[in-house]
TrEMBL record:
Function (record text): Catalyzes the reversible phosphorylation of S-methyl-5'-thioadenosine (MTA) to adenine and 5-methylthioribose-1-phosphate. Involved in the breakdown of MTA, a major by-product of polyamine biosynthesis. Responsible for the first step in the methionine salvage pathway after MTA has been generated from S-adenosylmethionine. Has broad substrate specificity with 6-aminopurine nucleosides as preferred substrates.
Protein name in the entry: S-methyl-5'-thioadenosine phosphorylase
Pathway it works in: Amino-acid biosynthesis; L-methionine biosynthesis via salvage pathway; S-methyl-5-thio-alpha-D-ribose 1-phosphate from S-methyl-5'-thioadenosine (phosphorylase route): step 1/1
EC class: transferase
Record site: Important for substrate specificity: 170, 225
Organism: Lyngbya aestuarii BL J
The encoding gene: mtnP
An example Gene Ontology molecular-function term: S-methyl-5-thioadenosine phosphorylase activity
Reaction(s) this enzyme catalyzes, per UniProt: S-methyl-5'-thioadenosine + phosphate = 5-(methylsulfanyl)-alpha-D-ribose 1-phosphate + adenine
Xref: SUPFAM superfamilies: Purine and uridine phosphorylases
EC number: 2.4.2.28
A GO BP annotation: purine ribonucleoside salvage
Length: 290
């Protein structure tokens, strides 16, 4: 099967990567169903890269409806070891302005209806998740953004991403609560992905593109889809430049990542006691430990 070490998950407004060459559309089936869309595999900066539109290329899947497990498992089945996730986010801080870029290093989980683990049903594992983003991959991403020196874009190289359930945006009381908790940005998708990527031993980092001030800011209108999409369109070219520069740097040096051995001490159930169908379903994750 086609292989790619680098996966890109494109969020709202980023449904394809223009610079990919020699592309092939791959239909991947997984034990967890089909991913959000066919995966586009192509060459970028001399590397095979796999691109997946998170909500589907016609944006038909709600954050709650996304097949998170299938998406991560499908990328794993293509050989992906690093995921760069591009996402639209609201800003919870004055200094993070719409069109700024944030590479978060923490999450707060406010989701309620997501399946955020491959484990269960006869196999128990608890990954370490204190540092939910791969710091090595995040460093490559922030270095790439700094090197590009994009006009009018400020980089925030850390921050806390509050992941809410949606699909409605937050109330003002919620937005102010998240601010009081120290949240930097808010979105609806990245946390389940980061957890599943870690369980799948894939390094994960987020390129968050600020599109609005959510609804807390007294001098800015409350977030609307129009605002998000408009600002994202303004930023889509920059986002693709950043991803390309990041892939270029990765092509020169693929960093070590603690994510790549995340399951080493995480699985509690002796594997010879795990139901055979679970071993089969989780083959890609477990085979190196069998
Ligand atoms: C279109 S506004 C809300 C929508 O945008 C973000 O999506 P993504 O993370 O895929 O870029 C946010 O999480 C919501 O899903
Ligand atoms: N304000 C916001 N809240 C949640 N998700 C978002 N995506 C973009 N802006 C957002």
């Amino acid at each position: 099967m086609t292989q790619a070490k680098i996966g890109i998950i494109g969020g709202s407004g980023l449904y394809k990567m223009e610079a990919l060459q020699n592309i092939e559309e791959v239909e991947v089936n997984t034990p967890f169903g089909s991913p959000s869309d066919r995966i586009i595999v192509g060459m970028l900066e001399g590397m095979q890269v796999a691109f997946l539109a998170r909500h589907g290329r016609t944006h038909h899947l709600l954050p709650t409806e996304l097949p998170y497990r299938a998406n991560i498992y499908a990328l794993k089945s293509l050989g992906v070891e690093y995921i760069i996730s591009a996402s639209a986010v609201g800003s919870l801080k004055e200094e993070v302005k719409p069109l700024d870029m944030v590479v978060p290093d923490q999450f707060i989980d406010r989701t309620r209806s997501r399946i955020s683990s491959f484990f269960g049903k006869g196999i128990v594992a608890h990954i370490t998740f204190g540092d939910p983003i791969c710091s090595q991959l995040a460093k490559v991403l922030t270095d790439a953004i700094s090197a590009l020196n994009l006009p009018d874009v400020t980089l925030h190289s850390s921050g806390t991403y509050v992941c809410m359930e949606g699909p409605a945006f937050s109330t003002k009381a919620e937005s102010n609560l998240y601010r009081s908790w120290g949240g930097t940005i808010i979105g609806m998708t990245n946390l389940p992905e980061a957890k599943l990527a870690r369980e799948a031993e894939i390094a994960y980092a987020t390129l968050a593109l600020a599109t609005d001030y959510d609804c807390w800011h007294p001098e800015h209108d409350s977030v609307t889809v129009e605002m998000v999409v408009g600002n994202l369109q303004r930023n889509a070219v920059n986002a693709q430049k950043v991803i390309q520069e990041t892939v270029k740097r990765l092509s020169q040096n693929l960093p070590d990542s603690e994510a790549h051995s995340a399951l080493k001490f995480a699985i509690l159930t002796p594997l010879d006691k795990v139901p055979a169908e679970r071993i089969k379903e989780l083959d890609l994750l477990l085979k190196k430990y069998l």
